[in-house]
Amino acid sequence: AGFPNDAVTSKISSANTLYRRDNEWLMTSTDGTGAIHALSHAGIKSAKSVLILGAGGTARAIAGAMDSISESVHVLGRSDLRREALEHAVTKAEFSYIRWNRGNRFF
Questions:
Q1: Which pLDDT does position 100 carry in this prediction?
Q2: What phi and psi, each to the nearest 5 degrees, are found at residue 96?
Q3: 75: helix, coil or strand?
Q4: Over the Cα atoms of the chain, what is R_g?
């Protein structure tokens, strides 16, 4: 869109907020930081493993955020269309993508 990205937006290739700082418009994403703050408020500062249900834009933002507090990030998605973008959002933690099919049994 022609606006500079912050580090979060560059990592997840997604933005949902446009803000102005020092007479310059910047883009960021608040979904992942919001999830981190909610978990922190609930007393969760780190995790061994995280499962994200869905593979849309919010999932990508949350996967990128969970990358900083979890050892592994797993995403359950209906198709492989967004797998690569999600995988690029996770740079530190182990990443896996699971296809969500009718026949899957998780419990």
A1: 84
A2: -140, 150
A3: strand
A4: 15
DSSP 5-73: B-HHHHHHT---EEEEETTEEEEE--HHHHHHHHHHHTT---EEEEEEE--SHHHHHHHHHHTTTEEEE
Question: Exposed/middle/buried for 32, CB within 10 Å: 0-12, 13-18, 19+?
Answer: buried
Contact between residue 92 and residue 69 where contact means Cβ atoms under 8 Å apart: no
Full strand arrangement of the beta sheet holding 47-53:
47-53, 70-77, 94-99
pTM: 0.85
Q: How far apart are CA 80 and CA 87, in angstroms?
A: 11
Percent of the chain with pLDDT over 90: 73
